Amino acid sequence: MPGENLSRDEARERAELLSVERYEVALDLRSAVGEPSDGAGTAGTARTFRSVTTIHFRSARPGADTFADLVAPSVTSLTLNGRALDPSTVFDGARIALRGLAEENVLVVDARCAYSRTGEGMHRFVDPEDGEVYLYTQYEPADARRVFANFEQPDLKAPFSFEVTAPRGWTVWSNGAATGSGAETGVWTFAETEPISTYITAVVAGPYHHVTDVYRRALPDGTTLEIPLGALCRKGLARHFDADDIFLVTKQGLDFFHDNFDYPYPFGKYDQAFVPEYNIGAMENPGCVTFREDYVFRGKVTRASYERRANVILHEMAHMWFGDLVTMSWWDDLWLKESFADFMGTLSLAEATRFTNAWVTFANNRKAWAYRADQLPSTHPVTADIRDLEDAKLNFDGITYAKGASVLKQLVAYVGREAFLEGARRYFKRHAYGNTRLGDLLAVLEETSGRDMVSWSRSWLETAGVNSLTPVVTYDASGHVTELAVLQEAAASHPELRPHRVAVGLYRRASVDAELVRYARAEVDVDGPRTVVAELAGAERPDLILVNDDDLTYCKIRFDESSLQTLREHLGELTDPLARALCWSALWNLTRDGLMPARDFIALVLRFAGRESDIGVLQRLHAWAQGALVHYAAPGWREEGARALAEGALRELRLAEPGSQHQLTWARFFASTAASDADFQLLKGLLGNTAKIDGLDVDQELRWSFLRPLAEHGLADESVIEAELARDDTASGKRHQVRCLAARPSEEVKATAWADLVDSDALSNALVEATIAGFAQPGQRELTAPYTEKYFEVIERVWAERSIQIGMDLVEGLYPSLQDREETVRDTDTWLAARPDAPPALRRLVLEARDDLARALAAQACDAASAPASVTSD
Length: 874
What we know:
5-stranded mixed beta sheet
């Protein structure tokens, strides 16, 4: 990573100096399969490819100096305005020095760029199933410079023309439509794009399975908009590829955004590529969106998995307007694209597709991500202070995405939906193909709403931290509400009290066996430390007071004691799925904050999760219950808690409707919680077909889920794992195998895994991820304890030597969080104190891990101090 960073100040200076007219990029990718290409590659190797870039640009100050960006092993030749430059004197491996610019300039760079195994730049993947090679690019925030020379910052937009020479028999895709088939010649050319940023250019190449369709829409002028649609995946996944459902959601999304944005999709075609070993969920490259291929489902999955995929499809589609058509000037305003895409993706999911409960998933899942991020020492305002590219990489976080989306949901409640959407329409038309900052958006919203957006922005976008809202209520002698107030609190580190538009719901049970339903609701503007909800005075006494009913704002919900007791006894009788999800989320926040013992939260899950109708909420409850046991329960209670979770999971598995998604979800949870000899014997029986559970189809993905805990507990050796790989000799199978191998409980296994991760860069990004997942297991704390000291010895070297993505994975994934003792906190503090000048992004990752550990210790103290609780599940 040294020398590859770019500061905000450098980018600002370069943007003031340059304007880019167009790029012409020619890539020769024949070396990917060992074909001789231009004489610079060697048959049988696929280390580098030829990249020739021509950049036409202008300088506001003739005679000035600047630089272009390129991360490459070597440069063959360079010319600036026809003058040859010596690569050895102007290229340092990351930048090309450009001196004495003219008013109009042409830079030509002929380079050898490297294929990637880290998911950054031009990633090369060899399918173990059939030996086929697949390529794709991934750039955000600044990895286009690994594929072609450029000015790598979002505000230097330009049109791009790509020409790609590929192995014969391959197909190639890019942002623009192919202008002629290269199937016979191997040379693919593409239509010039509209002006776009470097980080959203794309190339996908290989023998991909490809399906096509067309979206049609009548326009007000009497013409018809036609958008060619494509969906592609590896050939090995073709039998699992449900392109029809992908196209269905795509068309529903295009209808929704055309209905609401009044700006036709601006980038011609719309291809969606599901690619291997992808680091993130998806990327919004205009005309050529790339997705993690995990969204091609190899086995039976629940409705929640289809919902997640649909949400990602619509999130990336929203980016075509928020991010691609109009782009932030610098990464400070990353939220201008990510927050909007998260919000509009969920809105369109709920209103245009079959997933009408999308806001339930958002409340229960996405916001939990935001609440965690907003309580870390690295929390930041939604519009952040991004000093450089390393800062930018780390700010693709829960604040930028989920908190930002929550803030926008609050904004819609504040200004009204139509004012919000009309502001978006004006924003697109006013800034099409340009770059914006915070003030540009606030200006149009103030126009359309008449509201003071500066004050709103100051409270919601320019300050950090999450507020807590707690109801305080008094009653008269007859049991009616005399006064209900909402108290607002903030952490001392981030004391801002914000204006909240909230709904307060009152719930009660009409009889002993009745459901818990809402009978009164009021919306109020909470402002300051105490706000009275006058509309609810006189209401009959509730069993539950739910602040932020309908999830209008972003806050942590607290309960009065009576409401908390109601939830302990009757949470399963709360009929509204969104209200129920909000209560679960609030109870989890109480647990994380050390205000509810972890064993109490687990008891609630065991008592009520079996009644949860929303499969996404159920899956989140399973994850939370395991997190509570592993991190927040007192160590002395973990064994008892583990038995209770496993027993509860098995009981619910046997009770679930045969063949249902609930049965599948409980089966996976049971496998992950298995704790006794009987549990493990059942898993072995399900794998060996000597045991059955009515209706449960043990497909290949579920087989790996059952094998993993056996490996973790030393009940499946290397031969068993290798035999399973022989059944599933695919890329997915290899990842599962690597994880299982690293999870085995032996000193030798852990030493090998550590060496593979820290002392070698031979593993691809996907196998790094799998090895990390296997290395540290909750039941193997003693085995991994010796690696605490080693971790602090190596992380600076790892950060310096590895790509930023792999560096992040290793620093986060190998932190000794399972060594949950005060000594680990002190070791972390010692490292931080001794290295004040370590890269800020590295320090941030270590600080965040330390904070999670300190929170876990506080929660364990709360759990240990609680009275012994029997875990029941009646």
